[in-house]
């Protein structure tokens, strides 16, 4: 109920806020019902789209080198990721996703189901186009792919001490990618990658090493050609980590 009241207040603020409405940010507790709500406890053996939604949100809580499958099946890897998530946020780490776990996720998610510290506006710059068009997958797929990346980054951000991570490049169309000198096979054209700038508190090497246990299979940083001013993280099926100076 508190959530609904919060939503109403936020809407009211938007209605009366006029020109300043765009600066009104709804409180995190207002998000749960608007984004996604789980209606059952999930644990090992469960399956379904609600498990997949959970997997997206704990994909950044894997062991080093692991990449959690978003298969809607609550197996040992999902259970272990949930345990790390719970432990990371001070909850009892039983690997069972119940009310406490879901309430923490509700606090962490925005109405559009992105995590509170990341948004599509950071990912869809696309050389000024402000959309997910023109990549190697359809716009809806690219957008969905970035949502997973954002949740991995939310985990990385928390593990690095809740210090801001600045996304300097997210999705890029094929032409945008080529105009900025991206690799012809760049994951940015799929929405599965992000570049993290150095204008934030964690060092380049802290982000590089931290990304290894946030589910990223592609991590490039200091000492890798053209990657001295950011850390590139991405999701793919095979591992490629390189930062010779870290
Ligand atoms: Zn990159």
TrEMBL record:
<dbReference type="InterPro" id="IPR036366">
    <property type="entry name" value="PGBDSf"/>
</dbReference>
<protein>
    <submittedName>
        <fullName>Peptidase M15</fullName>
    </submittedName>
</protein>
<feature type="domain" description="Peptidase M15A C-terminal">
    <location>
        <begin position="118"/>
        <end position="233"/>
    </location>
</feature>
<dbReference type="Pfam" id="PF08291">
    <property type="entry name" value="Peptidase_M15_3"/>
</dbReference>
<dbReference type="Pfam" id="PF01471">
    <property type="entry name" value="PG_binding_1"/>
</dbReference>
<dbReference type="InterPro" id="IPR036365">
    <property type="entry name" value="PGBD-like_sf"/>
</dbReference>
<dbReference type="InterPro" id="IPR009045">
    <property type="entry name" value="Zn_M74/Hedgehog-like"/>
</dbReference>
<dbReference type="InterPro" id="IPR002477">
    <property type="entry name" value="Peptidoglycan-bd-like"/>
</dbReference>
<feature type="signal peptide">
    <location>
        <begin position="1"/>
        <end position="21"/>
    </location>
</feature>
<feature type="domain" description="Peptidoglycan binding-like">
    <location>
        <begin position="47"/>
        <end position="104"/>
    </location>
</feature>
<dbReference type="InterPro" id="IPR013230">
    <property type="entry name" value="Peptidase_M15A_C"/>
</dbReference>
<keyword id="KW-0732">Signal</keyword>
